[in-house]
Structures are given as structure tokens and as C-alpha cells.
Write a structure and sequence with these properties.
It is built from ten helices and ten strands. The chain is of the alpha/beta class and about 260 residues long. The strands form two sheets. The protein has an eight-stranded mixed β-sheet with strand order 3-2-1-4-9-6-10-5, with helices on both faces. It has a two-stranded antiparallel ribbon with strand order 7-8. α6 packs across α8, α7 packs across α9 and α8 crosses α9. The longest helix has 21 residues. The protein is globular and about 45 Å long.
């Protein structure tokens, strides 16, 4: 199976040795600093990485990579078999290998991480507590005007209490091409509408955050057979900080863009 899983990274970091993984230096300026391809080669949006995060790797693959199946993960987060309380080295051993992806893709169209559950919020309200409500209002207008067949899916996802995060997926490259054409049309349109100079330091990853919501919108309008698997985190999670951040966003919404 001609399959490539992008590993978006902005720094030198351990990467699985399996040939299915393709590390890519995102936000690369000039020559890549590391022994990997940079997202500034070929047709690219590398200079947008500050705002688009791992999407600059996705855009690069859309425009420049030929393969039958394509996936996206991160230098510190991979698809795999989760076992809680494992140390980092044990987690590395549980990351999917080529055979794991190939077995799943025999029966499913799309591989996704398990959804995050928002028990006391909707997808829309969770975003609005962390960012500016104006973002989703403007994205909705763009979808109405440019992709009206997705507006019911957009509103359905915004009213749900669950979401696939991190822009992680694996699917046919032809599906990725369709998704990217739709996604980047929406994001570039919004970018042209706004003044990025007014973004605060906490909001500069704006388009990466928006795209996490849009992946589910795009999937909602398809009849794909999907499967959810664990996402293996290779760094320790500060749960106290995450909980504190959640409460702060919930009750003291940050400054809007």
C-alpha cells in the first residue's frame, strides 16, 4: 500500500523508524535545519505556519506529494494502542506501524483519533470561550456563500458535544485532495477578510484551531466508514494547568481578536 503519514515538527525530535512516516519541518525558513524535508519546498504556504500550524505540512502534501493514502500526525502525538500509566519509551512501542494502518484501511475509509467529549459545552460554545465568537460567525457566512451544501453539517457539528481534535487523520489521498480544496478555500477567504495584525499572542494559531472544527464538518457531509483509535502522546500532560485553563476560558473569556 502506497501510504505516507506526515509527522509535522518544528524541532528536532524522535521519530519512528517505520518508512510509512514522513517527518516534515513546518514553518521552515531557508534550508531545513534538520535531516528532513521542509514545508517550504515546491508549492507551499510555509510562511503562514505561525497562523496555520500543522496545516502548512498538509498543504505541502496536497500540492506536492503523490501517494494513494495520506495521514497527518505530530512529532509528539501519533496513532497507536494506548495503555495508561505507560512511560514514554513504552508509548513509543505502541505507535502504529505500517501493518496496523493497512489492516484498518482494508475495512475503513478514514482513521481518526477518539473524539473529545464536551459534557457541559457544545463545540461552538467551547470555541467561543477560548477564542473570538466572531471567528465562527464569519466562517459560517463563508460556508453559506461559497459552500452552501455544507451549512447543515456546520450547524450540526457546532451544536454537538464531541469533536475530533489535532487535525489528525488517515485516508485516501483523493479524499485529502477534496478536503484540502474545500478547507483552504474557507480559511484563505477568512484570512483575506481579517486584519491579522490585530491578533494577540494567544490567538496567533487561529487557523489551526478553526480547522480542527472544520474537519468534522467536512466528514459530516460524507458517507465514509470511519474508525477511531488512540492518540499516543509522547510528552507529559500537565492536567492541573489544562484544568485551570479550561475554567479560566469558561468563566473569564479571553480577549477577542
Amino acid at each position: 500500500m502506497d501510504l505516507k503519514i506526515l509527522v509535522a515538527t518544528h524541532k528536532q525530535y524522535w521519530t519512528p523508524s517505520e518508512d510509512v512516516y514522513l517527518p516534515i519541518h513546518v514553518g521552515c525558513k531557508g534550508e531545513p535545519k534538520f535531516a528532513m524535508i521542509g514545508d517550504n519546498t515546491g508549492e507551499n504556504i510555509s510562511d503562514k505556519n505561525k497562523n496555520y500550524c500543522e496545516l502548512t505540512a498538509l498543504y505541502w502534501a496536497w500540492k506536492n506529494l503523490n501517494c494513494d493514502y495520506l495521514g497527518l500526525c505530530h512529532y509528539r502525538r501519533y496513532f497507536g494502542f494506548q495503555k495508561y500509566f505507560d512511560g514514554i519509551e513504552r508509548r513509543k512501542q505502541r505507535i502504529f506501524q505500517r501493518a496496523d494502518y493497512e489492516e484498518l484501511l482494508k475495512n475503513f475509509d478514514v482513521i481518526l483519533p477518539f473524539q473529545r467529549r464536551y459534557y457541559i459545552e457544545t463545540v461552538r460554545s467551547q470555541y467561543e470561550h477560548a477564542h473570538s465568537p466572531r471567528d465562527l460567525e464569519q466562517i459560517e457566512k463563508i460556508i453559506v456563500n461559497r459552500h452552501p451544501n455544507y451549512i447543515r453539517s456546520f450547524r450540526a457539528v457546532m451544536n454537538r458535544r464531541r469533536l475530533h481534535l489535532w487535525n489528525m487523520f488517515v485516508m485516501k489521498k483523493s479524499f485529502v485532495d477534496d478536503y484540502c480544496k474545500w478547507l483552504f478555500d474557507i480559511l484563505f477567504t477568512y484570512e483575506n477578510w481579517m486584519d491579522k495584525n490585530n491578533l494577540s499572542d494567544k490567538k496567533w494559531r487561529l487557523f489551526g484551531f478553526i480547522s480542527e472544527r472544520l474537519l468534522d464538518v467536512w466528514l459530516h457531509g460524507k458517507n465514509f466508514k470511519t474508525v477511531e483509535v488512540d492518540a499516543i502522546m509522547l510528552e507529559k500532560v500537565n492536567w492541573f494547568r489544562k484544568g485551570s485553563d479550561f475554567l479560566r476560558r469558561k468563566f473569564f473569556r479571553g480577549t477577542s481578536q
